[in-house]
Amino acid sequence: xxxxxxxxxxxxxxxxxxxxxxxxxxxxxxxxxxxxxxxxxxxxxxxxxxxxxxxxxxxxxxxxxxxxxxxxxxxxxxxxxxxxxxxxxxxxxxxxxxxxxxxxxxxxxxxxxxxxxxxxxxxxxxxxxxxxxxxxxxxxxxxxxxxxxxxxxxxxxxxxxxxxxxxxxxxxxxxxxxxxxxxxxxxxxxxxxxxxxxxxxxxxxxxxxxxxxxxxxxxxxxxxxxxx
Length: 228
Description:
Tetracycline Repressor, domain 2; 10 helices
């Protein structure tokens, strides 16, 4: 049984009762802050703006997160948590390894397409050479599961004689991430340079199929490709 979030009631200036939800308030601040950081970067995001959009105060934000950098780390942790929680809900343990890998790639492509702020925050963190991510044990712990899932799928595929030997699960994760990440990070420049809207539904559906196909062809044994 989950523990209910502690709430309290206070009186507003007009005398009406208002529910205080600290955890809900913190989550709202994190979600709004993620949009601000994604749009303006760490240096350009303003606590005043975040406070205004969350109907909180700078004092409350600093109370919860300590500093703008502390809020940024919390937003980064939340972004990675959403990815890993989504993967955990896929329920792929009982699937054949090929189907499990396909579903994982499809989820990653869809998640990144639907959460551009995640891609932008990762790009910003790379500009900072991973300085703030390195401070977070939470992010390191969260991402252990990403490699663990691929290790399990790959081991099962090897045992079934479907996947080729000698691959590193971390490198498989890298290739999946690279294809799905680039689809968002370089969409605007590709569209402008080549005069094609690669973000259109038709283009995205085509790229999604190709991404799955490329990953599968990288992992599957050559003599199994005919059945893919």
